[in-house]
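Fold this sequence, please.
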Amino acid sequence: MALWLSVTVLCLGAIGLMLVIVGALFSAIDALGKKRYLFGWLNFLFLPAIAYCALYWREAQYPARLTFGGIALLLLTGALILANEVL
């Protein structure tokens, strides 16, 4: 893989990971603000943030967009890395 492509893929992965982390923090704040304390405290583990955003999509649209956008970027990064290994 060319150096510029490797750097681009690395930046995509870093941005995706950052979006997942920030989305999980925002979903924790959103859940605690709406008195869903179990989800609020568990969202700091990142995996329940995905479940919270999926269950309460209408109420947590902003954290959901951050979290799901980050997951999409991470999947794209993984696919690009996998495609590079195969080719």
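The mean pLDDT is 88. The radius of gyration is 15 Å.
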